[in-house]
Recover the amino acids of this structure.
């Protein structure tokens, strides 16, 4: 093959390969699109998108700040009332422990510099401070998580054969209000 022909083929390969690489992950992009737009009145920040899989956008591939673990804690199994002031305790396979606390929207997030778990990781939720509902014992997750740092990747309502319920504090919390964020 002449050098000029080889150069054109190499250039074509480089341009097409680079273009395809820049397109990103179409499955991930579809999952992000399916989340829909931001709700009105909730600015982008620590209180936005409760109950959604945070690490879809907050990972090394997204344009947002990177989280190693993130999620939303609800007051009970069936309601949309979110629980602020809840401790989320994580223990990784190296027995390193980190506890995050949910904000007024029930959200918590962990930056990689704070804690980057080595999987598997065991998670529990517990009362923390006066803002949280009182829980005598920590609520333990029944199984460890093996690779996913986004709680909503597996936990969402309604429960189905493919996913567990959203993460919650109580099985029946009829008299406990959720927390609300002041504007």
């Amino acid at each position: 093959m002449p050098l000029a022909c080889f150069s054109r083929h190499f250039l074509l390969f480089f341009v097409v390969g680079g273009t395809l690489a820049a397109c990103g992950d179409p499955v991930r992009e579809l999952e992000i699109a399916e989340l829909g737009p931001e709700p009105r009145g909730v600015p982008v920040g620590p209180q936005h998108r409760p109950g959604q899989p945070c690490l879809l956008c907050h990972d090394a591939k997204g344009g947002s700040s990177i989280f190693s673990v993130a999620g939303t804690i609800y007051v009970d199994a069936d309601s949309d009332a979110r629980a602020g002031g809840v401790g989320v305790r994580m223990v990784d396979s190296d027995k390193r422990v980190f506890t995050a606390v949910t904000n007024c929207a029930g959200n918590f997030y962990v930056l990689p510099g704070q804690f980057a778990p080595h999987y598997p990781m065991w998670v529990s939720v517990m009362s923390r401070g006066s803002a949280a509902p009182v829980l005598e014992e920590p609520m333990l997750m029944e199984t460890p998580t093996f690779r996913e740092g986004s709680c909503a990747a597996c936990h969402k309502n309604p429960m189905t054969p493919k996913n567990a319920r959203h993460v919650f504090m109580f099985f029946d919390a009829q008299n406990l209000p959720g927390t609300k964020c002041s504007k």
User: Anything to note?
Assistant: Residues 42 and 48 are 6 Å apart (CA to CA). Confidence is low (pLDDT under 50) at residues 5-22. Residues 50-170 form a domain with the Immunoglobulin-like fold (CATH 2.60.40).
